[in-house]
Specification:
The protein is mainly alpha-helical. The chain is built from seven helices and two strands. The chain has a two-stranded parallel sheet with strand order 1-2.
Length: 112
């Protein structure tokens, strides 16, 4: 979550959110995180032919916006949209996130 949203939570809300997140992690999550840290697919991005939308979350504490823009630039024809949120734009700005996603999907449907 973005710092403003997280800072609006009480200590109890933070604790409850952390407990809920921890209980939802499936077995193997640690191994998956380790694999993500060791795998570099940047060279493969240029081979992508699928319509792509990169939603840049500008208040993301985990992945800097600059890296998200690099992802978009590496995928041929990728579209980019911005939301001033953390990792969970669908939680922080659900209406705006839905508009971006449905707008992108609608344009793809019109082309198909």
């Amino acid at each position: 979550m973005s710092a403003p949203l997280l800072n609006s939570f009480t200590a109890e809300q933070v604790r409850a959110a952390a407990e809920q997140t921890a209980s939802a992690l499936p077995p193997g999550t640690g191994a998956q995180v380790d694999l993500v840290r060791r795998t570099d697919v940047r060279a493969d991005l240029a081979l992508s032919t699928a319509p792509t939308l990169v939603v840049v979350t500008t208040a993301d504490n985990l992945i800097p916006a600059a890296l998200q823009y690099q992802l978009s630039e590496a995928i041929p024809g990728a579209r980019t949209a911005e939301l001033a949120t953390g990792q969970l734009p669908f939680l922080e700005q659900p209406k705006e996130w839905l508009e971006i996603i449905t707008g992108f999907l609608g344009r793809q449907q019109d082309r198909g």
